[in-house]
Amino acid sequence: MANNQGRRRRFGSVRQLKSGRWQARYRDPSTGQLRSAEETYATKTDAEVALTHIEADITRGQWADPDAGKVQFGEYAVAWLKDRKLAARSRERHDSVIRLHLLPTFGDRPLSSITTAQVRAWRTACLARTGEPTVVKAYQIMRAVLNTAVDDELIRRNPCRIKGADRYDVPERPVLTVAEVYAVADAIDARYRLLVLLAAFTGLRFGELASLRRRDVDTGNAALMVRRSQAEMQTGVLFDKAPKSDAGVRPVAFPTELLPEVKRHLDAFAGPGRDGHVFRGPQSGLLRRSNFRDDWISARTKAGITEGVHFHDLRHTGNTLAASGASLRELMTRMGHSTPRAALIYQHMVNGRDREIADRLGSMIRKERGEADS
Q1: Nearest 10 degrees: CA dihedral of 226, 232, 237, 238?
Q2: Closest CA to 251 of 186, 118, 325, 343
Q3: Is position 161 annotated as part of the catalytic site?
Q4: 17-42 burial, b if ≥16 CB within 10 A, otherwise e?
């Protein structure tokens, strides 16, 4: 018994404080400096058990510096965003989400103090005051920030563990008929008529159409070359950005039935020179979503189209119309959704399948316009 009392612990030590509570101390495996456990204990046995757990964590490589988790979420999130490689518009959106939806609740909290229950309560409160897509985005960013904190060994486990919180069911968007597309095109300002038709029969995004230059229009082959997409910052600054992936740079055939429309538009509204913008605003400036929105709503109303139809639904319409007879790969390539190398895209164009898709769309146009004209 005397030998047991005189034997020193192999790992760390415990001591009684003036308060009567017990403290566990050990060597920091990273610095070698003596440090105390995060809390004190009522009995010597409790302190020794805690010391045993700390030793086991260090042995398994699962020990984390308790002080590391004291870094505030707001400070860490700002540094995290600064280190990300993001496009200007994406960086702006991330910054807005962090500033408006994460910092008010978690900004001053230490990383290690954030619990799954707190994340769940925050999410519930957010859903009560804003749309689900915004909450999903905020949750995704918060989870990404805390995943990096785990990698940096500041916390052991990411508290963002709510099943299904990182996604939402996108409501099915309306699909216009060919007749409805032309009804809107007939009702809108003449300078935007081709914008509507190309959105519906090529499936290009608004930003892709707004960034088109004269040199991107191949009237000989009835095709458009998508090389860039226009984006708008919250400050109103417009700029062209590269596509998110190689699949975004692609040739897209349009129905030859639209060639007369294309030529008339180029003659009447496009900017001068090879680099002139195909679509411009009413004062010959750059086309903006905000300025175009009123024209779209007015034309949609005149055409008797359902109020909930957005301009982007023309892309969904084009995707749906083109799907008839197209393989999944062909359709994904046309829409810029896939990630094959650029060579595969051009090989696809040479093989003529994209032309076949455009020709089928053309037959729909002929059928509809023929019935309308008769």
Answers
A1: 10
A2: 343
A3: no
A4: eeeeebbbebeeeeeeeebebeebbe
Q: Which of 94, 315, 348, 355 is catalytic?
A: 315
DSSP per-residue codes, 210-249: HT-BGGGEETTTTEEEE--EEEE-TTS-EEEE--SSGGGS
Task: Dump pLDDT digits (tens) for 241-250.
Answer: 887 777 778 8
109, 337, 360, 369: the active-site residue: 337
- Active site (annotated) includes residue 348: no
329 as an active site residue: the answer is: no
Of 94, 89, 119, 92, nearest to 105 by C-alpha is 119
Q: What is the pLDDT of residues 89-124, one digit of tens each?
A: 889 999 999 999 999 999 999 998 999 999 999 999
How far, in Å, CA of 207 to CA of 19, rounded?
Answer: 68
Q: Give me the count of residues in the chain.
A: 374
Smallest Cα–Cα separation from 122: which of 77, 187, 107?
A: 107
First and final C-alpha spacing in the chain: 111
Look up the pTM and report it. 0.64
84 in catalytic set: no
Asked whether the predicted pLDDT for residue 31 surpasses 90, the reply is no
Contact between 246 and 341 under an 8 Å Cβ cutoff? The reply is: yes
Distances (CA, A) of 198 to 18, 160, 185, 213, 278: 81, 42, 10, 14, 12
User: Tokens 């509507």 identify what position?
Assistant: 196
Catalytic residue among 94, 123, 191, 205: 205
Mean predicted lDDT score pLDDT of the chain? 86
HSE-CB of 205 using CA atoms within 13 angstroms? 16
Q: Is 10 a catalytic residue?
A: no
Task: Spot the catalytic one: 9, 157, 161, 312.
Answer: 312
Distance CA 221, CA 255 (A): 10
235-283, pLDDT tens digit by residue? 888 888 887 777 778 889 999 999 999 999 999 999 999 999 999 998 8
Strand partners, 72: 110
